[in-house]
Write a structure and sequence with these properties.
The chain is an alpha+beta fold and 197 residues long. It is built from eight helices and three strands; from the N terminus they run H-H-H-E-E-H-H-H-H-H-E. Strand 1 and strand 2 form a beta hairpin.
């Protein structure tokens, strides 16, 4: 199938992906824009995993103060180069992540940051629920796994549903930015301020 330049340009404008990536995605999806976006997301995610080990020394501190002046946050978002750190895309991402901190109040950046004693406490709470011990071992494990996943979406920044689009998690938003910039991007630190706390 021949892919028109206009269709490639349209997909590029929608996603920020490279021309050759857009062309390949459109060829793979037989010219279907929605399917091509899915292909790009899959490919971008795969590429972003290979970038995760690259060092990040540059970045931008995103900030947000809620309209009532009672809540605020700072997010230190890191990337590989000063060039990417100064782009509108990167600055907007750091600001959006600062808003996410105010709206969703995460405690940890990722599930890997949760101390073992906190996980053990959550597992013990689940095990103490009524009827848990009567379940089979397999079912107990599935219950623990499912309930821990829910906890992760509440307390882990990367696992939270993105406030701007509830079909995405924060990790997917960051992976999308990694695919667009071609650089490793990481949340280094964040802090949330609330009057009275």
């Amino acid at each position: 199938m021949s892919i028109s330049v206009d269709l490639i340009k349209q997909l590029r404008d929608m996603t920020g992906a490279g021309v050759s990536d857009c062309k390949k995605a459109l060829e793979e999806s037989n010219g279907d824009l929605k399917e091509a976006i899915s292909v790009l997301k899959k490919n971008g995610f795969a590429k972003s995993l290979s970038r995760n080990s690259r060092e990040v020394y540059e970045g931008w501190i995103g900030s947000y103060i809620h309209h009532n002046g009672r809540l605020a946050s700072l997010v230190m978002l890191m990337c590989e180069t000063d060039f990417v750190a100064r782009t509108d895309l990167f600055k907007e991402l750091s600001h959006s992540l600062a808003v996410q901190v105010v709206t969703s109040n995460p405690i940890y950046i990722s599930r890997e940051d949760i101390p073992q004693e906190v996980l053990d406490k959550e597992i013990n709470i689940i095990k103490e629920e009524k009827g848990f011990l009567e379940k089979t071992k397999d079912l107990q494990e599935k219950i623990i796994e499912g309930k821990l996943e829910k906890v992760f979406t509440e307390i882990c920044f990367m696992d939270q549903v993105f406030y701007k689009d509830d079909s995405l998690k924060v990790v997917e938003v960051i992976n999308d930015a990694i695919a667009k910039t071609g650089e490793n991007i990481k949340i280094s630190k964040f802090v949330r301020f609330e009057l009275g706390n």
